[in-house]
Design a protein that fits this description.
With about 170 residues, the protein is an alpha+beta fold. It has a domain at about 5-120: Aminopeptidase (3-Layer(aba) Sandwich). It contains 4 helices and 7 strands, in the order βααβββαβαββ. Strands 1-2-3-4-5-7-6 form a 7-stranded mixed sheet, with helices on both faces. Helix 1 (about 15-30) packs across helix 2. The longest helix is centred in the N-terminal third of the chain and has 14 residues, at about 15-30. The protein is globular and about 40 Å long. Bound molecules: coenzyme A (COA). Coenzyme A binds next to strand 4, helix 3, strand 5 and helix 4.
Length: about 170
């Protein structure tokens, strides 16, 4: 399907509110993320600032006519130093932007950037079931390496998490 009218670009501090507008409903209404408390704007600004300081952790947004339609980012896999060449990635779209290639556009930009830095492995933690996310990650070279059975509980029920891994040439 043709990608809607969005520009994929690097996030700036001023995208904090737009990113929250996409992400916070997933926190409040779904198990797609295991966060449970909405993120306030000051925290999101600090989050972007931290990401901007490390080239291994890019953040891209899909900027549309009605504001931010989605974002993708790479985050530290773990704060301990020896993990620094591994990242966790995720992508979230506003409901209207789903199913139109916006997720792929964000991931093209994200992995284009990650291919140019010293990153060896990327991991995606996908709460099951999520066929669209699985298909998107497989399209970008991820393969499933494990499932953690009922590792999280949200809204009073347990959810399993599928771990997907992508290997870089470097
Ligand atoms: C997951 C998400 C980022 C995918 O982005 P998207 O732009 O909507 O992706 P698309 O709809 O173009 O679909 C990607 C692939 O999934 C497939 N797909 C979409 N919905 C599907 C469904 N319900 N069942 C099976 N496959 C599905 C598409 O056919 C496509 O396959 P292809 O790559 O082989 O062509 C987006 O749907 C989203 O934001 N979902 C909610 C948040 C979320 O779950 N984020 C991921 C957290 S790990």
């Amino acid at each position: 399907m043709a990608r809607p009218d969005v520009t994929i670009r690097r996030a700036t501090i001023d995208d904090a509110a737009g990113i929250n507008a996409v992400y916070n409903p997933y926190i409040l209404e779904t198990a797609a993320t295991f966060e449970t408390t909405p993120i306030d704007e000051a925290s999101r600004r600090r989050w972007i600032e931290t990401r901007l300081a490390n080239p291994r952790h890019p953040v891209f947004v899909a900027d549309g006519r009605e504001g931010i339609a989605g974002f993708a980012n790479a985050a530290p896999f773990d704060e301990r130093q020896a993990y620094e060449t591994s990242v966790k990635v995720s992508v979230f779209l506003a409901p209207d932007a789903k199913g139109k290639g916006v997720g792929a556009g964000l991931y093209e930009a994200l992995f284009g950037a990650l291919n140019r830095v010293d990153v060896h492995r990327a991991y995606a933690l996908i709460v099951a079931p999520n066929p669209a996310s699985v298909a998107l990650h497989e399209r970008f070279g991820f393969r499933q390496v494990s499932t953690l059975d009922e590792v999280g509980r949200k809204f009073g029920r347990y959810y399993s998490v599928m771990w997907f891994e992508k290997r870089f040439e470097a």
